[in-house]
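Here comes my example:
=====
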Amino acid sequence: METKQGIFMREITAESKEAVIDVVGVIGWEVWFPAMRDMLHAIPDTIERVIFDIYSPGGDVWEGNAIIQEIGALKQTTVAKVQVAASMATLIAAACDEREIASNGRWLIHNPWTMIQGDAGAMEKRAKELRDCENEAAAFYATRTGKTAEEMLALMEEERWLTPQESMDFGFVQKINDPFDVAAFAAVRSEIEKSGKWPVALVEIPALETFDCECIKCGEAIKSEKHCKDLKCEKCGGQMRRKERPGPGEDTKGESKNDADTTGTESEAAKDDVQPVKPEDGKPVEMSQDYKNGFAAGDADASHRINLEFEKKIEGLTSIAGLATAEKTKRDDLIKKMQSERDQALARIETLQKSLKESSEHLTKLLSGGMTFSAPIESFEEAMNACGGDYAKARKEYPEAFRMQREHDREKRGRKGK
């Protein structure tokens, strides 16, 4: 089964200068330190920037701290691109040299928490550990944002989702990524034009149409992306209209640019040159045999050329028909392929739905709090302590610990029998 959560490094080619790593899921579950460590150590020396695309609700403190240390040890420039970062995930993002957030992304920091059962002494020890984690996180945020540790502690105590602008105001990120930013689009277009290496279709993106408008009252002229009929003159309040353009052969004042003699003398002479010559007696002129032979030859040549053009058109139509047949065959093959892929996709959807149900059960245990560092239950004795001495509850909630305890008891009885 292909998982959709975890850490994934995108393909790195020989020409790549950037390595992109997707960080998706709960830290300590889908996102864990050993895998991240091995992935970062495998990055080639030719890579100049390592980009972390982050979509995570947070997770375990100790696992996250280990990942932070690995990010800090990288010699490349590190970049965090955040869609959602909460809890421990914000500390991982803050560890990067450059930090960006999506224009509809979110950022959340809060106090660490845990679950514990035990006497007053055990709770006091764990409370101190929590305070230590709070102070360490606040100090780290302060060094990365330029704010004070006190400001960070107050924000952690408040525990609210920050908008992209608030995230930038607090110094957590330096840039907001907006894919619909018109100015950014213009900058990209300018870069494309200058490079000379991009497809012409990208370079020749049509600009917005503008209209030359003028006021019917005061003559004020403006350029606008709106139709002139929808505008009023800002100067006098009059209605705007489309400014008239000069016609062919006219300058902007409508005057003719033709400086030739208009007396008609040359024109009449030209007419005389093309007048047909008529016989003096008004009878039609009889054509000579040479003329008739030439006319017949010309007619035959014209017919031959017409036939050749017709044959070329027939050949072209035949070729087009062949291409159409080939395209139809391709289309039929593509439809069959798509139907097969659709059936496979439906089967995968059913498998993924089952996987999603399992993942949801795992996530429910962690997403409510985000940043935890509860020690795992490794023995049935610990399970009993966690369940307040309730044997039935411990057996139900920690079946693996119960199984291990049963095996241990059997082995112990076996040794005594010998």
Summary: The first helix runs from residue 33 to 41. Residues 380-417 form one domain.
